Amino acid sequence: MIIAQAVIAIPIVTGISLAAMQQLPPRMRLQIKALGATRMQMLLLLMREARLPLLAEVMAGFGGVISEVGASIMVGGNIKSCSRVLTTATVMETSRGNFDVAIALSLILLLIAYLINLILTSIQQQQRPR
Amino acid sequence: MTGNSAILETRDLVVKRGGTTILSVDTLALSPVEVLSVIGPNGAGKTTLLQVLAGLVRPLRGEILFQGASVRGESNLAFRRRISMVFQEPLLFDTTVFGNVASGLKIRGMLRQVIAERTTRQLNRFGISHSADRSAWTLSGGEAQRTSLARAFAVNPEILFLDEPFASLDPPTW
Question: Cys-Cys link to A98, which of A19, A93, B11, B169 (CB 3.0-4.6 A)?
Fold first, then answer.
């Protein structure tokens, strides 16, 4: 199930990562090289320079994965205490007609998603150049 | 000049981009303490020449010798750690002025005390010590370029390549 979620997140994460790296000045790579950096040092420095959009990428990837339900049911099977997650449990409770439980579960899911996005956004805003 | 006394030599350098030859230099030699200015019209390949000489861009053909040894392959990193280059734009990192000036020294894995000492010396030399803790992104064009120059000098390069770095500096600054 983790692999399935990763497969879903990879296109989002890759696309935003590429855009994040491309928004850096084209000569930044040459400047880092001119400072005597190894390939690994260059990669780390470029990632540090693009850390704000990279954090946005983490948020987008997380948003895509936490709200995903189809792959979780197909791959995980929604097995109790094993592969049942909030999204699949919500769908199951809805189909059973337990709307109060389904709403409670979806509120918990929303709360988790909001909290994590709030934390990541706070970090991102603190890092913004002043 | 050519010969064994040259610190940097090139032979038959050719750089092509998109099938077009943008640089072709038969021979070039730099002796220690020599100051060489490259003058030419826009698009003549001055920037490309500096980038090739600094080991940043690989030529299609030709050879670059630093103190008689080729700078290709693994020796390229060792060569790049003995030179420095300042570009037309400052290309500063998203950190403080101090962090920018210290970046080349950190990359070389120097001791924290040595980094602090050398960085402070260059900050004073370029008149930007009062801005040491400021974010590099808040600097004016001239201050940013001075930070870029200080970063290049901090590593004590044996060869310094300057690609029109004084464009943003007003006359009293330099």
Answer: A93
Task: Delimit the domains of chain A by residue range.
Answer: 2-127
Cβ distance A129 to B104 less than 8 Å, yes or no, reads no
Using alpha carbons, list the distances in angstroms from residue A65 to A16, A49, A106, B109.
Answer: 15, 26, 15, 39
Say if the Cβ atoms of A27 and B91 lie within 8 Å.
yes
Cβ <8 Å between B81 and A36: yes
| Residue in A22, A19, A23, A17 with CA at minimum distance from that of residue A55 | A17
ipTM of this complex: 0.89
pLDDT tens, position by position, B109-162: 999 999 999 999 999 999 999 999 999 989 998 899 999 999 999 999 999 999
Output the CA–CA distances (angstroms, integers) from residue B23 to A6, B12, B158, in the order listed: 46, 10, 24
Contacts 24+ apart (CB under 8 A), A38-44: A38/B77, A41/B107
Q: Is B174 on the interface with A (CB under 8 A)?
A: no
Task: State residue B84 phi and psi, 5-degree precision.
Answer: -150, 150
Q: Tell which residue, B153, B152, B149, has the closest CA to residue B169.
A: B149
Which helix (DSSP H) or strand (DSSP E) does residue B63 occupy?
strand B61-66
CA distance A22 to A9: 20
Q: Count CB atoms within 10 A of the CB of residue B152.
A: 24
The beta-carbon neighbor of B137 closest among A31, A33, A129 is A129
Query: In terms of CA atoms, which chain A residue is nearest residue B89?
Result: A27
Q: Do A36 and B91 touch (CB under 8 A)?
A: no
Determine how many CB atoms are found less than 10 A away from the CB of residue B64: 22
